[in-house]
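Hi U.,

Before I forget, here's the chain from the pilot set. I'm dumping it here mostly so it's searchable later in email.
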Amino acid sequence: MVVERVKPWWPYLEATLFVGLAILANQRYFPDHPGYRDLPFSLLWVPILLIAGRYGTAPAAFTGLLCSLSYFYLVSLEQFMLGSFEFTGNDKVMVFSFLFVSLFLGQLYDRVKNRLVKLGHEHEELKTQFENLHLHYESLQLANEELEKKVVGRQTTFNSLYEMARGLESLDEKRLYDGV
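Structure:
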């Protein structure tokens, strides 16, 4: 869905609300899995998919950064409370994948949006060209009708002159002389 004309701060507020809801859901329903760690799906992916697929690169990058920081905070806070801080390789991959996927999807959205805008402009240009061609066709039709009328008028004039000349040709000299 291409979103046009939103307030510039709205995507960032929406991203913050989505990530906040994902964090609350994590703490309420999955207290033993901070940051949805060791679960098959992390709800932190949902804001990335929604924002990147709706607003583009900049809000998607903000959402990816917000999800990365949230994941880091949730995982490190739990481990800090337990007295040890250990950020594993999987956690690092997760943090960077939030950023990478959000940027990738945002760029993908921007390219699709730019292509749609370009196709819209091309459509308008083609529509204008077809309208111009139609007007040109109609004017040529009118000119053709006028030309046919002139040709028919000239043809009848030539026919009548020819008939008059043939009539003069069939007259005898004697009758002409007597008539004069």
